[in-house]
Structure prediction request, 122 residues.
Amino acid sequence: MDHNLPAHRTLSVVQLPDGTYTYADAAHLPAQQAPQQIVQHIHQAPPDRTVQRIALGSGIGAGAVAAGVYFGPLLVGVLTAIAANLAMLAFLAAVMAWGVVTVVKSVGGREGKAAGKTLRRR
Prediction:
């Protein structure tokens, strides 16, 4: 400490908020506490509410926002299921076309091979 106060037997020298030093009774000083350690357990990030805040700020009612929050994921699920069904149908169509070309080529002789080439070009 950088002060010019002589040491005292029963009083402590303390620094005041304005930077000056003075004598104070140690029994009347507030107890110095160590900073409390806060342990926060984060289990899951909170949902992103940006779209809802923008919608409410633009004047859309809370019911419309709630409907969007509820039906949005349902719509994504339905579109995914439709896309999966279409992909399966496309795969089946390709397999069936390959099967038809193979059967026509093997059964039809020269004419079948010519028909298979015609089908393959398409």
